[in-house]
């Protein structure tokens, strides 16, 4: 199976095809990806990116990248830059220039005045507590604000005074005049504008009133000529408000909002608020920590754009909720890397091996394939020498049944090299094993030995020219399937204490002296590992992050 499987046909695609067939939709299909720049994108956003850009590509249309930047106190240029990088890295190009909801602040303000003039909006002086009291509940209708019937001219003047900075934060708001008895609470005279004295990253100090998301979003869609506004299911109850706004102002078009199920991934948090808490409380090393489900974190861990797009295609697009097993994401990266990743040997916990019957002043070069199933990827050289390193976990003094690695007086083949037999175990004063003295069989390069059978195959590196490295063994950040479902506890209570294990002094073969940085390596018998450029520059030697293990150890009781 390739990294990107054949695109699945989803219900949104079917709806558009049906509308085209009936003549209900003509012209170009235009979608948009509209993130709020208040954090980094995560894997859930990847699903939305693939859907919005994918639908546009399917119908030969275009997709806009628009920042819904109506909350300047929580937004920053850092987030904007990171989001643009993530979308490009995933392999998508947005139409024309990047857009901002703030590009339309003048028009949004004019539309707000239009609503006031039509008697569809009013300025309200209820404070937050009073507004909550007047709103009612799911079982009880709300009641009208005492300011609901202000004369149009009075609301218009107050709104202009709000714009001109004559009131303080929270003193007044502009509300839509819809229906305080509506069973849909979103239609109970929602706030359209509020006062916020905060500099905006795009407009500076020009504005001290900012539009609410539910007012801004439909108008921005309409001004851009969006034909299909694709949202996650939590916006389904907001759709009547989306339509009400567009039905009551003079806009060039009325996009169709369609909702789909958001991505819920087990062992994973995708709330931006909670991810920010992980960053702010230094639980992780920033938004791009390889344990984070952010796109930048996954990129730094070694996930490929192809694997993420393949994963999004595998899980599909539907209306039903539910939780996706994170094992599917790990499966997608394994499938991609198994096909493409170059191979190398890395000894995580080096144990010295001395070949007593190999000359101390002699070496030879052995040739191994870069990929055993891809001869076109070429070959790599490794050095055979008097002193080698194997992994400490590949040796047992008293091996268990069916042990397929090295033990006293037992033989193993070294990957791509000779067969050797352990003859002596050397310990230090504390009893710790520090060296194995072995004999190699010079007649076993590429052929089976005569008269005995090796007890498996293990990896190794030469002491002569292997490269010292540090290895970051990353694992799932949480050890609970639903870390934020604990009503009485905190999601931080479910942190996996082994989400990061750092191995110092590991050794990699010499072909990784200058490792590639575009794709992880498969460290044979260990997993897939990606060179961390940032940490490598700091350490002055290669540092590798584990992308994923070779097999799923969680699903088989490994944790």
From TrEMBL:
Its EC number is 6.1.1.18. It comes from the Bacteria. InterPro entries: aa-tRNA-synth_I_CS, Gln-tRNA-synth, Gln/Glu-tRNA_Ligase, Gln_tRNA_ligase_bac, Glu/Gln-tRNA-synth, Glu/Gln-tRNA-synth_Ib_cat-dom, Glu/Gln-tRNA-synth_Ib_codon-bd, Rbsml_bL25/Gln-tRNA_synth_N. It is found in: Cytoplasm. ATP binds at residues 36-38, 232, 262-263. Gene3D superfamilies: HUPs, Ribosomal Protein L25, Chain P. Transmembrane segments: none annotated. The keyword Protein biosynthesis applies. Signal peptide: none annotated. L-glutamine binds at residues 68, 213. A motif ('KMSKS' region) lies at residues 269-273. Residues 457-532 form the tRNA synthetases class I (E and Q) anti-codon binding domain. PROSITE patterns: AA_TRNA_LIGASE_I (PS00178). The keyword Cytoplasm applies. Keywords: Aminoacyl-tRNA synthetase, ATP-binding, Cytoplasm, Ligase, Nucleotide-binding, Protein biosynthesis. It holds the Pfam family tRNA-synt_1c_C. It catalyses: tRNA(Gln) + L-glutamine + ATP = L-glutaminyl-tRNA(Gln) + AMP + diphosphate. Residues 341-441 form the Glutamyl/glutaminyl-tRNA synthetase class Ib anti-codon binding domain. One of its GO terms (molecular function) is ligase activity. It is an enzyme of class 6 (ligase). Residues 28-338 form the Glutamyl/glutaminyl-tRNA synthetase class Ib catalytic domain. Belongs to the class-I aminoacyl-tRNA synthetase family. Monomer. HAMAP family: Gln_tRNA_synth. This is Glutamine--tRNA ligase. The gene is glnS.
């Amino acid at each position: 199976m390739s990294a990107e499987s054949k695109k699945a046909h989803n219900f949104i695609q079917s709806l558009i095809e049906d509308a085209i067939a009936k003549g209900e939709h003509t012209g170009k299909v235009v979608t948009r990806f509209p993130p709020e720049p208040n954090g980094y994108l995560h894997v859930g956003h990847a699903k939305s990116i693939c859907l919005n850009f994918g639908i546009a590509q399917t119908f030969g249309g275009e997709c806009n990248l628009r920042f819904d930047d109506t909350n300047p106190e929580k937004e920053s240029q850092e987030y904007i830059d990171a989001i643009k990088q993530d979308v490009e890295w995933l392999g998508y190009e947005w139409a024309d220039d990047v857009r901002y909801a703030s590009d339309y602040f003048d028009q949004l303000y004019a539309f707000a005045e239009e609503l006031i003039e039509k008697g569809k909006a009013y300025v309200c002086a209820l404070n937050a507590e009073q507004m909550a009291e007047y709103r009612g509940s799911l079982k009880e209708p709300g009641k009208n604000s005492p300011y609901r019937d202000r004369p149009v001219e009075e609301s218009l003047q107050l709104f202009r005074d709000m714009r001109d900075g004559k009131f303080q934060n929270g003193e007044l708001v502009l509300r839509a005049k819809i229906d305080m008895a509506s069973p849909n609470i979103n239609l109970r005279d929602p706030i359209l504008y509020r006062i916020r004295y905060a500099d905006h990253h795009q407009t500076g100090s020009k504005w001290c009133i900012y539009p609410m998301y539910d007012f801004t979003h439909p108008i921005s869609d309409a001004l851009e000529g969006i034909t299909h506004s694709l949202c996650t299911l939590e916006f389904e109850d907001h759709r009547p408000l989306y339509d009400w706004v567009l039905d009551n102002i003079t806009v060039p078009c009325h996009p169709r909002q369609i909702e789909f199920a958001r991505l819920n991934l087990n062992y994973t948090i995708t709330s931006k608020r909670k991810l920010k808490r992980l960053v702010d409380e230094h639980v992780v090393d920033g938004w791009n920590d390889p344990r984070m489900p952010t796109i930048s974190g996954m990129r730094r861990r070694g996930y490929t754009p192809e694997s993420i797009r393949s994963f999004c295609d595998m899980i599909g697009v539907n209306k039903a909720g539910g939780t996706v097993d994170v094992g599917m994401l790990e499966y997608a990266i394994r499938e991609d890397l198994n096909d493409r990743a170059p191979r190398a040997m890395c000894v995580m916990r080096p144990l010295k091996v001395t070949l007593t019957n190999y000359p101390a002043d002699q070496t030879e070069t052995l040739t191994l394939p870069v990929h055993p199933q891809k001869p076109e990827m070429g070959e790599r050289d490794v050095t055979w020498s008097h002193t080698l390193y194997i992994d400490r976990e590949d040796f047992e003094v008293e091996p268990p049944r069916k042990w397929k690695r090295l033990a006293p007086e037992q033989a193993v083949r070294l990957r791509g090299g000779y067969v050797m037999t352990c003859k002596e175990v050397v310990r230090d004063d504390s009893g710790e094993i520090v060296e194995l003295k072995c004999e190699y069989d010079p007649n076993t390069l590429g052929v089976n030995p005569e008269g005995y059978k090796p007890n498996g195959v293990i990896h190794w590196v030469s002491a002569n020219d292997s490269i010292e490295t540090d290895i970051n063994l990353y694992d799932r950040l949480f050890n609970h399937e639903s870390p934020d479902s604990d009503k009485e506890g905190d999601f931080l209570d479910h942190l996996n204490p082994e989400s990061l294990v750092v191995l110092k002094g590991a050794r990699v073969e010499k072909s990784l002296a200058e490792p590639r940085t575009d794709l992880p390596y498969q460290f044979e018998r260990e997993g897939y590992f990606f060179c961390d450029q940032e940490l490598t520059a700091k350490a002055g030697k290669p540092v590798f992050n584990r992308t994923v293990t070779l097999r799923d150890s969680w699903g088989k009781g490994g944790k």
